Amino acid sequence: MIKKLLKNFSFCSVLICVSHGLTAQEDNGVFSGKPQNQDSLFKARKALWLILSPEIAYVMSDGSSTGKALLDSSVYDAFNLRVGWQIPSPDTYSQLYRHQLLGVGFYYSTFHNKNFGKPMGLYGWFNIPFKNYDPQSRWRFGYYAAFGISFGFNPFDEATNPSNKYIGSRNNCYVAAFLNASYTLSPNWLLIGGAGFRHFSNSAFTLPNYGINMLPATISIAYRVNKVHIDTRHDTIPKFKPFFLANLLLSAGEKQYMIGGTRYVKNTLSAQGLYQFSYKFRAGLGADLFYAAGGQYRDSTPGKSKFSKQFSSGITINGEWVLRRGISVPLGIGFYLKRNEFNDENKKHYLRVGLRARFLKHYLAGITVKAHGGSSDVFEWHLGYQFHKDRNRYKRAIFF
User: Fold this and answer.
1) Same domain for 264 and 155?
2) Last residue of a domain, which of 162, 196, 224?
3) Can you give the pTM of this predicted structure?
4) What is the residue range of 102's domain?
5) Of 10, 149, 158, 171, which residue is most buried, by most CB within 10 angstroms?
6) Is residue 99 part of a domain?
């Protein structure tokens, strides 16, 4: 299982790192039959940062007396080690996001309690300042988010670890969001303080799955390893030319409906029509067709077909936050047209959030979390195809 998760993480990391490079090459005729010359590519050195972040956190209880007792007997501490790149002007998206940091990180923690284990994580992250760089000020304020995989948990086991009902699997999703403030100590050293939210969950892949939620606080030290001071001047960005696009997506995941029970496949076929109205945002409508294997075993209603017990459908309102031309954060709310409560479709609406990469101009890959309210339903690993005709011209730094 851990090898499978590491492969998935590596696959997504590679897509995220090279997606804008691949699309840039295709847009300039390397992969396509005809040169289109849409993008202006340039080579420039990126600033390379190394960040060490020790942390403490308040871990939230699941509300049960057993869960509270487990937390009371635990003491949490952790650290993060992150590597980040800062892309110079005149890169279009670097300017739009005020020369943000993008990178990968490693997380290590201990609860000093064998019932939790020693969770670790690998993740991708970004940090975006609220304001443009001001050389006259030592202070910068921003927001940070991370998404990845975690491992090293000691999960629930009815015989050997019955008190840990927070997590049912050794390997889980890692999600974090922070607000932070940085202070420039010297040209290559920063001191960063931050506070936020972190969540571990397997989205019902293995039950129980209350999840571990915490409110961490960190004091970080950041060092510019290659001492490259990037160009932060703001070039003229052309007015955005809006355009329509369509996504066709096929996703797969697995879900457990009862503790110790069989895992069943869940698939989704999605069609989305979107309108991108700015460099950063696109929105539109869509439709989902859901398949939940084993529905006939969870419902014994006479006269109801096997097809009806396994399939459901919904319509969606979708948005995408575009971080770079080939990287986006999909967001959505859906409303069931037909649902089966025995397949854990227990609300009339559902939510989605995730990470998506576009590569070779039209192909999509990513992961979304589908949830009902605050309860995760399934991880949707998806592949897809995007129909679009983007007439905008982008300035883009070659990643490698």
Assistant:
1) no
2) 224
3) 0.86
4) 45-224
5) 171
6) yes
Same domain, 75 and 179: yes
Give pLDDT, residue 400.
54
Is residue 69, in this structure, part of any structural domain at all? yes
The domain tally of the chain equals 2
173-193 pLDDT, tens digit each = 999 999 999 999 999 999 999
What does the alpha-carbon distance between residue 198 and residue 153 come to, in Å, rounded to a whole number?
A: 15
- In this prediction, residue 34 carries a pLDDT of 39
Q: Tell how strand 172-186 and strand 139-153 pair up.
A: antiparallel
pLDDT in tens, 144-173: 999 999 999 999 999 999 999 999 999 999
Residues of the chain with pLDDT below 50 are 1-2, 4-16, 18-37
Q: Which residue has the tokens 């050794």?
A: 170
**In this structure, are 148 and 266 located in the same domain?**
no
Q: Residue 112 falls within a domain, yes or no?
A: yes
Whole-angstrom Cα distance, residue 208 to residue 329? Answer: 28
Identify whether residues 156 and 300 lie together within a single domain: no
Q: What whole-number distance in Å separates Cα of residue 52 and Cα of residue 78?
A: 11
Give the integer Cα–Cα distance in Å for 316 and 10: 30
Residue 338 lies in a domain: yes
Residue pair 358/23 in contact (Cβ under 8 Å)? The answer is: yes
Residues 152 and 264 in one domain: no
Q: What is the dihedral of CA 147, 153, 156, 157, to 10 degrees?
A: 140
Please give the pLDDT value at position 399: 64
Burial 252-264 (b: 16+ CB within 10 A, else e): ebbbbbeeeeebb
C-alpha–C-alpha distance, residues 186 and 227, integer Å: 11
Q: What is the pLDDT of residue 37?
A: 46
Q: Are 190 and 275 in the same domain?
A: no
Integer CA distances (angstroms), 223 to 48, 52, 56, 118, 145, in order: 8, 9, 22, 27, 20
What are residue 216's DSSP bridge partners? 57
